Amino acid sequence: MTKKQPNYVAIVDDHLLFAGSLEKLIETFNGFDVLYHAKNGADLQQKIKENAQLPDIILLDINMPVMDGFETVKWLTENHPSIKVLALSMEDDETVILRMLRSGAKGYLLKDIHPDKLEEALNEVMEKGYYHSEKVAETLLHSLRPDDSSVDLVLKENEITFMQLACSEMTYKEIAAVMNLSPKTIDGYRQELFNKLHIKNRVGLVIYGLKNEIISL
Amino acid sequence: MTKKQPNYVAIVDDHLLFAGSLEKLIETFNGFDVLYHAKNGADLQQKIKENAQLPDIILLDINMPVMDGFETVKWLTENHPSIKVLALSMEDDETVILRMLRSGAKGYLLKDIHPDKLEEALNEVMEKGYYHSEKVAETLLHSLRPDDSSVDLVLKENEITFMQLACSEMTYKEIAAVMNLSPKTIDGYRQELFNKLHIKNRVGLVIYGLKNEIISL
DNA sequence: TTATACCATAGGAAAAACCCTGTTCCAAGG
DNA sequence: CCTTGGAACAGGGTTTTTCCTATGGTATAA
């Protein structure tokens, strides 16, 4: 009976308590070891540079300060394509899932899954190279409607600033004052965003911003 | 050397993965055993009824579906005052912390603490009956401003329903239709809420609802 | 140099949101 | 029976938001 080398896992999550707990859980699994954790994407880059041993799998939280999951997975797929990234998040928001998968994640796990599912996912991602839970698979199918062309939909600096300010009790006129622009320009941003994001009103904008973690409370 | 009986911990969190991981972590601590977990407050009530052995400490997540942390801790302090409740949440929002503590929680832990801190908290809450991290202690002090009179500010059923619907792209007229009320009545709710909550517009309402976990995305 | 594209901006108008005050109905308490 | 209070709702006015279309300026690619 030859003892195989374990698969190395890295955890990226700003919630230390969760990360630490998850480590204990993973160490009860057969054939997996936790290499290290990182608090965010930037921290992970650091850790990768410092350590000779690369992780086989990275469990990556999406909403983090500093360098979030989207940026991180993009960096990883470009610089370390051999590492398999499993996204880990609480929201099963379709656009978020798709964005992660499109960015290069090999799977998407909801944080409310049963611990056993995690072991299953880890094994499957090592064997097959990807893992998709039923729920996510469903979302994937559901998303195959041809519309799209949603080429990553980039928001410009000013639009993001506006969005953040719009997530407050400020009036557009006040926002214009803060941003040092004409109210009419602000109205232009608003309209452009409504079109791009397929939303109907300011509340929709706030919701979109929160769901996509462009703004936060 | 007499072996003491361990302290029993129950975990209430709708994120199974987190709960499961946390269990593994706690079992590495000296003198603590996890009795069971529950997905939410209602589930916890169930578990408490079924099991003869009561937990000594409950680690309680705040934002859960069905029966959230606030309701749960209230129920616990009324029905099982001997159980020490530690609230567990990611947000360090002042109003949320205060609301939990006022509702009877013996401590408030942010989910981004170091795992060692959890052990410290568990030990301290068993010894002293309470635990407050530096951060929370600060918030507590900060909150001792005399203003308040914030007599728990109860929202009625209809107001909450309205609030939830207002957190969407629906128009007030549409909300009125859904709730089967006159648009003018809806306007009344709106006004009443704006006054009670000291907010200026619908975005403010959405933000309030989210911060106080009355609504969720 | 011209076409193109993008940005800030404007006019004008309809719809929705916001605000204040007042009426009716009904139930509960004195 | 009368009073009080809350809930639903209306009238009517002001402010913001929303929507559509259009123009001048500047950078840039052709």
Please describe what this structure looks like.
The structure is a homodimer of 217-residue chains. Chain A is α/β, with parallel strands linked by helices and 217 residues long. Chain A is built from ten helices and six strands. The first copy, chain A, folds into two domains: 7-142, 3-Layer(aba) Sandwich (Rossmann fold); 157-211, Orthogonal Bundle (Arc Repressor Mutant, subunit A), CATH 1.10.10.10. A six-stranded parallel sheet of chain A has the order 2-1-3-4-5-6, sandwiched between helices. In chain A, strand 3 (57-61), helix 3 (69-79) and strand 4 form a beta-alpha-beta unit. The longest helix of chain A is centred in the last third of the chain and has 15 residues, at 183-197. The A-B interface holds A 14-18, 20-25, 27-28, 88, 90-91, 93, 109-115, 117-118, 166-169, 199-204, 206-207, 210-211, 217 and B 14-18, 20-25, 27-28, 88, 90, 93, 109, 111-115, 117-118, 166-169, 199-204, 206-207, 210-211, 217. The structure holds a DNA duplex (30 and 30 nucleotides).
